[in-house]
Amino acid sequence: MTGKSHVAIGSAIRQLEAAGILQPLNAKKWGRLWGCGELLKLVGDFEAGVSAPVARPA
């Protein structure tokens, strides 16, 4: 799907977990799930700021 090896993907996920970006949502060996609530909040806040109308002087 990504064209990357399972080893490279596993390493990237472990790095993101260690940095606190991804949080494991279950403890399964297969079918693991991760959350990234802070990242999604950051993106949402950015989108809200970019889409907010800009007040222009008359």
Q: Mean of residue pLDDT? A: 88
Tell me how many strands there are: 2
Sequence of secondary-structure elements: HEEH
Low-confidence stretches: none
Contiguous helical run count: 2
Rg, Cα atoms, Å: 18 Å
Largest sheet: 2 strands, antiparallel
Using the alpha-carbon principal axes, give the shape.
elongated
End-to-end CA span: 52 Å
Lateral arrangement of strands in the main beta sheet: 1-2
Helical proportion?
Answer: 40-55%
**Coarse structural class:** mainly alpha
Strand content: 5-15%
What is the number of independent domains? 1
Q: Explain this structure to me?
A:
With 58 residues, this protein is mainly alpha-helical. The chain has one domain. Helices cover 48% and strands 7% of the residues. It contains 2 helices and 2 strands, in the order αββα. The protein has a two-stranded antiparallel sheet. The radius of gyration is 18 Å and the shape is elongated. The termini are far apart. 2% of the residues are buried.
